[in-house]
Amino acid sequence: MIDKRVANVEEALAGITDGASIMLCGFGGTGTPFVLTTALGKISARNLTLVSNSVRHTEDCAPSLFEDKRVAKVIVSAARSRGREPTTSERQLEDGTLQLELVPQGTFAERMRAAGAGIPAFYTPTALGTKLTEGKEVREFNGRQYVLETALGADFAFIGADRADRWGNVSFRGTQENFGPSMAMGSCIAIIEAKHVTDEPIPPREVDIPGIFVQRVLQVPTES
Amino acid sequence: MIDKRVANVEEALAGITDGASIMLCGFGGTGTPFVLTTALGKISARNLTLVSNSVRHTEDCAPSLFEDKRVAKVIVSAARSRGREPTTSERQLEDGTLQLELVPQGTFAERMRAAGAGIPAFYTPTALGTKLTEGKEVREFNGRQYVLETALGADFAFIGADRADRWGNVSFRGTQENFGPSMAMGSCIAIIEAKHVTDEPIPPREVDIPGIFVQRVLQVPTES
Amino acid sequence: MSVTPLNRNQIAWRAAQDLKEGQYVNLGLGMPVLCANYAPADQEIMFHSENGIVGVGPVATSEQEDSDFVDAGSQFITLNSGASLSDSTHAFAMIRGGHIDVTLLGGFEVNPEGDLANWDAMVPNKGPLVGGAMDLASGAKSVRVVMAHSNRDGTPRLVEKCRYPETGFGCVNRVYTGLAVVDITPDGFVAVEVLDGLSREELQAQTGAPLFFADDCGVLTTPDL
Amino acid sequence: MSVTPLNRNQIAWRAAQDLKEGQYVNLGLGMPVLCANYAPADQEIMFHSENGIVGVGPVATSEQEDSDFVDAGSQFITLNSGASLSDSTHAFAMIRGGHIDVTLLGGFEVNPEGDLANWDAMVPNKGPLVGGAMDLASGAKSVRVVMAHSNRDGTPRLVEKCRYPETGFGCVNRVYTGLAVVDITPDGFVAVEVLDGLSREELQAQTGAPLFFADDCGVLTTPDL
Question: Could you give the domains of chain B?
Answer without folding.
Answer: 19-122+151-219 (3.40.1080.10)
